[in-house]
Design brief:
Blueprint (H helix, E strand, L loop, with lengths): L2 H4 L3 E4 L3 H10 L1 E6 L5 H12 L3 E9 L3 E4 L2 E4 L3 E8 L13
Antiparallel strand pairs: 1-2, 2-6, 3-6, 4-5
């Protein structure tokens, strides 16, 4: 796959309590990715951007939720999340990264 496309696969790191527990215990990082991303795309993008070897990738489709503002009803947008597990001895430091 072209490197230009791989640069746009990962949108941002996803930070939550569940994601931080996964990082501490299992070397597993969560990212928000584009809707058309596949497991090989995410693997190649992480290895290209962060120079870290990937052990496994899990992808989750986050569904919409109903939202309401007064009498106006709507839905939040659906998006895709990827959990990336790194090999032993590998790590990603988000403090020095820019997105």
């Amino acid at each position: 796959m072209k490197q230009e496309r791989l640069m746009h696969v990962i949108l941002r790191p996803y930070v939550s309590e569940k994601a931080s527990i996964g990082t501490e215990k299992r070397r597993e990082y969560a990212f928000e990715v584009i809707k058309s991303a596949t497991k090989p795309d995410v693997r190649d993008a992480v290895e290209l951007l962060f120079k870290a070897k990937v052990e496994s990738v899990r992808i989750v489709n986050v569904k919409t939720k109903p939202r309401r503002f007064g009498q106006i009803q709507g839905k939040s947008k659906a998006w895709k999340k990827a959990y990336v597990k790194l090999q032993d001895g590998q790590a990603i430091d988000f403090a020095t990264m820019r997105f």
